[in-house]
Design goal:
The structure holds two protein chains of two kinds.
Chain A lengths: L6 E7 L13 H4 L9 E4 L7 H7 L4 E5 L10 E2 L1 E6 L2 E6 L10 H11 L3 E4 L5 E5 L4 E5 L16 E8 L2 E10 L2 E6 L3 E2 L4
Chain B lengths: L4 H29 L3 H13 L8 H24 L6 H8 L5 H18 L4 H12 L5 H15 L16 H21 L9 H10 L1 H13 L5 H19 L2 H14 L2 H6 L1 H9 L7 H18 L5 E2 L7 E2 H15 L5 H18 L4 H15 L10 H19 L2 H5 L2 H8 L3 H18 L6 H10 L1 H4 L13 H12 L8 H16 L3 H22 L4 H20 L3 H17 L3 H19 L3 H17 L5 H16 L4 H12 L16 H16 L6 H22 L3 H17 L7 H17 L3 H4 L12
Helix pairs in contact in B: 1-2, 1-3, 2-5, 3-5, 4-5, 5-6, 5-7, 6-8, 7-8, 8-10, 8-11, 10-12, 12-15, 15-17, 16-17, 16-18, 17-18, 17-19, 18-21, 19-22, 22-25, 23-26, 25-27, 26-27, 26-28, 27-28, 27-29, 28-29, 28-30, 29-30, 29-31, 31-32, 31-33, 32-33, 33-34, 33-35, 34-35, 34-36, 35-36, 35-37
The chains are: A mainly beta, B mainly alpha.
Chain lengths: 193, 788
């Protein structure tokens, strides 16, 4: 592929569930979702309110929006997305068709099918970050800390992915005691193909 | 420039007069420079003669007067310099020789002020003289300006505490001068409106109004006197002022002078003389806008009390100390009842200043706010729906009043406690009511205000009627562009309903459900969905063990889903039933969970989910939900899983059938790893997979790509099942064989995307075999040739 050396920030979030299960994104998060700082937005699904798309557009032009089980049909929402950002091939799907969504073996199968370097899924409302030699598996959790039938301790979270040439650095953000904190992870190096 | 001939004539007269004034003024100056005082005085007298005119309107006369008085000021400056050789007394006598009264008096005043400045004789003597003399001019316009000149000329010369003109005079002399002048000026001002005139009555009034400050100035002068103590004010000065105001009976004068009085004198004085003031105002002539006067007074008192919190009460005679607010609110009621005509918008503005007083001076007294809204209610009842011509204005003012407490408290629960506040909202016409309650809702959401009782929520949702349901008095179209915003706002409120007691919280949600389910089809998708999730969340977080209460809560959730279902929302109702089933399962209520799955979800599926894609999606979700449930007995689970498999096999499109069946395979679990409750039938697991494979196999060659995709999915899922559910590894080998056959039939290249996928899967199986011997038994080498 082409060697792009510019730093790219990708905001990864999902399972927002407005207005079904929450009424707004945390104000601490909105403070850093600013235009000019973020180049791509990846959403794992379950907006549910389509006016959020307008909100995302106000942050950046490149939107990659997967369709969740509570989303209504919309031209911009897709079941499975494969997109190249920088040198990375990124797969996105909500994950409610993957049974069970949290099983690594099943996720690895999805990675094989989509042939991606980074696989992003949602549905569990749990912030996840796992890597194998071939792929970085990410789940941004629920940006609003929305109710989940299977998970009783949901906290609001999202991921900021910093892509620089062949390195991807995930920043895992979440709300703790009312303040926004983040854990920065080791860079994931693009596997050779 | 108007084309009105009268105006043109006036301008002509004025310009001519000004010209003469300036010419004579110029002559006077020349004579003064030559030190010929007498000639100067003659010129001055001629100049002032222009002020003898009766032809100018008061406004134009004022313009002329201003030009003339400037020249007069030059004269006084010259005289003060003292080079003229005459004594003050001689000068004073000299000017009295002037023929006509008006010039004579202007000159006398000018010289008189110099005389006072010279301090040769007591100021009071001159004052006395001038006041007497000026009585000789009784023409309203001419007299008014003459006395204004007197007032301006003596301004700096008033005996007072600390003044240099106290020889033989006291501040009382100043008071007398000013009060007499005030009284005379007022009489003339009032008389201006009578008599024959060459201008219209309306114009006369307008011009009179502009002159109000000339009379009002006297009150300001009084207030500026250092020596005017509260004692003198209270015992003497106020009485005399009010007497004149009352006696003149003139609407304009009373209006302007009362307001000037309030603004001129200190608020401390007003507090001390409050009863007198209030009494006087009550008795003012009909037509005076006393609401605006009282409003002004209240504003001033509010500012004063805010600075001096200790002065917030008032007692009259032997009465107890009473908060000023109560004094004023009682007074406002009195005004409304004793005056013949009360203008409602003006009254509302007056009430607005009372409201402001509460927030500025008595912020803790919430009941006072309710008193105010009682007043509002009384005044707007019967006038809110176009019965009167000022309805729009009434509604505007009412809206302003309603918004103030919202902004101040930032907590709508305080407002919900005020029965008069809510009463006022309820009598508003539809659009207005909708606006106000939308603001209430937004305020609650913005402030995260919690609503913690059934009564509060019930009251609030009733008030929110225009948002929550179709009201009887509805006007206009509810379902416009704002509808989505509005309903989202209502939905957001559900998260504000909270009570630490589980049962109370359930009752609150139940009350909300009653209100929302009456909202009609378009609304309930927005409102009942969040309600269901709120209920499920409550159950999840409550930690309560009371099964009765938990059942009650789940039933509520179920009822809400049923309402949604009845309104025609099958897809979301289906999904919500699954969530309810999961919640019930986690609580150890298998019967409820089973009913939600079968009587709820599957019934909707059978009866209402029609499109093939939607049916497929629904089945996948159903399987996913079953996978999370472990509360069922052996028999129940058996029934559910088999029923699911049958339903999946009946999906319309073969690819849906294949995928769904593959998913159901995961529901069959080996007894070795799970407890007795779960179903034990590894054979059936294999059964589903092979059935799925057969379906794919049966698809036509045209669908080669799809076939490959499907079989690879199944293969991948089989890899998972071997490890997780103890799937027999030979099943996996068979699937690989099927895959190999597809590739051969389709002549698929070993470098195609699907081939690469397959290779990776085989590699994965190989990898896993080192961790789990079961994988070792899978024949991955059957494709050795294909990949070489």
């Amino acid at each position: 592929g082409n060697w792009i050396t510019k730093m790219v920030f990708v905001l990864v979030l999902g399972d927002i569930h407005i207005p079904h299960r929450s009424h707004d994104l945390p104000k601490e998060f909105k403070k850093i979702f600013l235009p000019g700082k973020i180049q791509h937005i990846i959403c794992t699904g379950n907006l549910c309110r389509t006016s959020l798309i307008q909100y995302f557009r106000g942050i950046c032009a490149n939107l990659h929006l997967a369709k969740g089980d509570f989303d209504e049909d919309h031209p911009l929402l897709e079941d499975e997305i494969v997109v190249e950002i920088g040198n990375f091939k990124i797969g996105v799907t909500h994950g409610h068709h993957i049974i069970p969504t949290y099983d690594m073996e099943v996720l690895m199968a999805t990675q094989r099918k989509l042939d991606v370097d980074i696989l992003i899924t949602g549905n569990t409302h749990q912030l996840e970050h796992v890597r194998s030699s071939k792929c970085l598996y990410l789940n941004p959790g629920s940006a609003t800390g929305a109710y989940s039938a299977t998970q009783s301790d949901v906290i609001p979270s999202f991921i900021l992915l910093d892509l620089d040439a062949d390195k991807a650095v995930p920043y895992l953000y979440y709300l703790k005691d009312g303040a926004m904190v983040y854990d920065v992870q080791e860079p994931f190096v693009l596997p050779s193909r | 420039m108007s084309n009105d001939p009268f105006e043109i004539e006036q301008q002509k007269l004025l310009n001519e007069a000004i010209q003469v004034v300036n010419e004579q003024g110029q002559c006077m100056k020349i004579e003064l420079d030559r030190n010929s005082l007498r000639s100067a005085l003659t010129a001055c007298a001629s100049m002032i003669s222009e002020l003898r005119t009766s032809l100018l309107t008061p406004r134009n006369y004022y313009a002329l007067y201003l030009v003339a008085s400037q020249h007069l000021n030059s004269l006084t400056e010259h005289i003060e310099m003292g080079d003229h050789g005459l004594s003050m007394n001689e000068l004073y006598e000299l000017v009295q020789l002037c023929g006509n009264i008006l010039p004579r008096l202007y000159l006398l005043i000018a010289v008189g002020s110099c005389y006072i400045k010279s301090k040769e004789i007591p100021a009071k003597d001159i004052f006395h003289d001038l006041v007497e003399m000026t009585k000789g001019v009784q023409h309203p316009t001419r007299g008014l300006f003459l006395r204004s000149f007197l007032s301006d000329s003596t301004r700096e010369l008033l005996p007072d505490r600390g003044s240099e003109y106290n020889r033989g005079s006291t501040v009382n002399d100043s008071i007398d001068l000013i009060l007499t002048n005030f009284t005379e000026m007022n009489k003339l001002w009032v008389r201006m409106q009578h008599g024959k005139s060459f201008i219209s009555q309306a114009r006369k009034e307008a011009e009179r109004k502009q002159l109000g400050s000339l009379i009002g100035k006297n009150l300001q002068r009084l207030a500026e006197l250092e020596g005017l103590t509260i004692g003198i004010y209270q015992s003497d000065v106020l009485t005399r002022i009010l007497k004149q105001i009352d006696k003149c009976g003139d609407v304009l004068a009373q209006q302007i002078l009362m307001e000037t009085l309030i603004l001129a004198f200190s608020d401390e004085y007003h507090l001390r003389t409050l009863p007198t003031l209030l009494d006087t105002v009550l008795k003012l002539t009909d037509g005076v806008n006393i609401q605006s006067i009282v409003g002004l007074l209240i504003e001033r008192l509010s500012a004063y009390i805010k600075e001096n919190p200790s002065k917030s009460t008032h007692s009259q005679g032997v009465e107890e100390e009473k908060d000023i607010f109560l004094v004023m609110s009682d007074y406002v009621v009195q005004v409304a009842s004793e005056r013949d005509y009360v203008d409602t918008p003006d009254m509302l503005r007056l009430i607005g200043s009372l409201l402001n007083m509460v927030f500025e001076c008595f912020p803790g007294e919430i009941p006072y706010v309710d008193i105010i809204f009682d007043l509002v209610y009384v005044h707007i009842d019967g006038k809110t729906r176009g019965e009167t011509s000022d309805c729009d204005e009434i509604l505007r003012e009412t809206r302003k009043l309603l918004l103030v407490p919202m902004e101040t408290f930032q907590n709508i629960t305080t407002l919900l406690d005020l029965s008069n506040y809510t009463k006022v909202i309820e009598i508003l016409p539809y659009e207005e009511r909708k606006y106000v309650v939308t603001r209430l809702a937004q305020n609650a959401v913005d402030n995260d205000t919690q609503l913690t009782s059934v009564e509060e929520v019930d009251l609030l949702l009733s008030l929110l009627g225009p948002l929550v349901r179709d009201c009887d008095d509805k006007t206009g179209n509810d379902y416009d562009e704002d509808f989505d915003e509005e309903q989202n706002l209502v939905a957001s409120m559900i998260s504000l309903f909270y009570n630490p007691e589980f049962e109370t919280h359930i009752n609150i949600l139940s009350t909300a459900h009653e209100h929302f389910s009456a909202g009609g089809i378009k609304r309930i998708t927005y409102t009942l969905v969040p309600l269901v999730f709120s209920t499920l969340q409550l159950i999840q977080k409550s930690g309560t063990q009371d099964k009765t209460l938990l059942r009650k809560a789940l039933k509520l959730a179920g009822t809400a889903v049923t309402s949604l279902h009845s309104a025609g929302k099958p897809d979301i109702s289906f999904r919500l039933y699954l969530h309810a089933a999961l919640a019930a399962g986690k609580l150890g209520l298998p019967q409820m969970s089973y009913d939600f799955l079968t009587k709820g979800a599957l019934t909707i599926y059978d009866e209402e989910i029609a499109s093939p894609k939607n049916r497929f999606d629904a089945m996948i979700l159903f399987v996913a939900a079953l996978k999370e449930l472990d509360c069922f007995s052996h028999d129940s689970y058996d029934t559910l899983v088999n029923q699911t498999a049958v339903t999946c096999s009946r999906l319309l499109h073969p690819e849906h059938q294949a995928r769904a069946l593959t998913a159901t395979a995961g529901l069959f679990v080996s007894a070795l790893d799970y407890g007795e409750n779960q179903f034990v039938e590894a054979k059936l697991m294999k059964d589903k997979l092979s059935k799925a494979a057969k379906l794919v196999n049966a698809m036509e060659p045209d669908y080669q790509e799809l076939k490959e995709e499907l079989i690879l999915e199944m293969l991948d899922y089989g890899v998972y099942l071997v490890g997780a559910n103890n799937l027999d590894p030979t099943t996996l080998s068979s699937l690989i064989t099927v895959t190999k056959n597809f590739f051969e039939e389709g002549k698929t290249s070993n470098t195609s995307a699907h081939a690469i996928h397959l290779k990776k899967t085989l590699k994965r199986i190989n990898q896993l075999s080192s961790e789990n011997e079961a994988y070792g038994e899978v024949d991955i080498y059957q494709l050795k040739d294909f990949f070489s």
